## 1
Amino acid sequence: MITEINRIVVIGSGTMGSGIALVFAQAKIDVVLVDVEQKYLDEGIERIKKFLNRSVEKEKITLQESNEIIKRVILSTNLEEAIKDVQLVIEAIIENEGAKKELFKELDSFCSDEVIFASNTSALSISNLADVTKRPSKFLGMHFFNPPQLMKLVEIIKGEKTSESVVENIVALCTRIGKIAVPSNEAPGFIVNRLLWPFLNEAYKLFENGVSDKEFIDTAIKLGLNHPMGPFELSDYIGLDVLLDIGKYLEEQLGVSYKPAKILSKLVNEGKLGKKTKEGFYIYDK
Ligand SMILES: NC(=O)c1ccc[n+]([C@@H]2O[C@H](COP(=O)([O-])OP(=O)(O)OC[C@H]3O[C@@H](n4cnc5c(N)ncnc54)[C@H](O)[C@@H]3O)[C@@H](O)[C@H]2O)c1
């Protein structure tokens, strides 16, 4: 069964949600972007506009195209209103299992049975999230990468009960929006974060133990492994709070060797979350 997807809702208007909404609007699919307060929606749409303005300046798109894309993003703080006539819900709220479960339970109570639910979780169990709904066969992970409008990959995570036709449907949708979908069975951290977390966490420990400075470690990784960003630059870009949540979850699921380095918890406790708060491992002036 292939569902024609022409209107979706993205819940959470932060770093990821606003970028995901942009990706769909660029692909001419109407999006309702939802958050708990108008100020978060305003920040989200500002990020979208900033990206589109730069694209116009670089002559990648015209001003008219930019305006049309913006028009396709509807902002809402009313979840029940927002889900009317949508075929797909993508959740991109904070990486907290309790908050996500509460949201999906609520959504399930007023969404029609055909609507597909997707979570952009970085590491949490899709089956556990799906279990709070009455539609586990129509529930899957759709894991975009930061920034969604530039990163090609979407990991498609199959929960224990996700139906193959729903996976096929979403893989086809990813192709339609210009992404490459990589399906994966469920495992803590899926593919990319399962491999990324130990790498980043070891970099934090090298720094913490005085083996080398963070700048040198970043340079070594960029030149030695041909990575576009070093581990500290990448961490600030992703968000240290997001990474700490991933690390704690992987430790809980896979054991103590995944335990987050102390420096990461310290920075998060100090509110230094990376680029989004203008300070993380590095300081940013814009
Ligand atoms: N940051 C990354 O690089 C990255 C990459 C891939 C996946 N993810 C995942 O995407 C999700 C979102 O991450 P982010 O970095 O965009 O977080 P963020 O903190 O930037 O944004 C989260 C947004 O969700 C909103 N929110 C919280 N509870 C809500 C609710 N009940 N209803 C509606 N809105 C709510 C918040 O107000 C905030 O605007 C997380 O699950 C994260 O693990 C993050």
Note: The chain has a mean pLDDT of 96.
## 2
Amino acid sequence: MAPEEPKLRRTAADWEERYVDGDTPWDTGMVDPALRELVEAGCLKPCRAIEFGCGTGTNAVYLAQHGFAVTGVDYSQLAIEQARHKAAAAGVAIAWQAGDLAEFAAPAEPFELLFDRGCYHCMRRAGLLAAYQAAVGRLLTSGARIVILAGNSDDTQEGGPPKVSAADLCGDFQKLCRIESLAAHRFEDLGGKPGPLAWKLVMTRR
Ligand SMILES: C[S@@+](CC[C@H](N)C(=O)[O-])C[C@H]1O[C@@H](n2cnc3c(N)ncnc32)[C@H](O)[C@@H]1O
């Protein structure tokens, strides 16, 4: 088992500050290749989708452009404001919500897809795993697909995103979800360069 990283509790204000300061290395402006592949291969079909921790909305906009009815939630007001501009420029309608996804009320019709690039691992490291799991249980319908991209503890480089082992990742979701696939992935850095080692986890909500 990988050694536990120290808890790093970031508040909504901390995240806002990072967007205000432009300290957002994850915000490449490029659609994540893992999401693109799943959509282009027809593994994810248009449906009611939510992105947890959507940041400035690049992946949410991509999903909307491909026929998904998208809701994007993020702590940061500024990120959501930028996401709104991105969606307007792309001519797509997205329901944006600035706030804590742990407090996001269950919709009348639960979501059929959850996409998450980098939010799960942050909430886990902040000691908020139970809140994350509760949101998955509350907001998604049975049979919903879940795609999570998270830092990989096999990465030997210091720094970078929070890292999770395969065993911990599977353990966090095995009660709530059926795991379809778990594969190594890479977050890209600015300019599309291969960046930190990651996981691509695809699951179905039980
Ligand atoms: C590493 S960033 C990734 C952003 C985006 N998914 C991307 O790929 O550009 C993690 C994001 O999760 C958001 N976040 C973390 N905890 C959250 C929470 N409890 N509720 C809503 N957003 C949260 C942060 O504000 C931040 O934008």
Note: Strands lie at 48-52, 69-74, 95-98, 111-117, 140-152, 163-164, 177-188, 194-205.
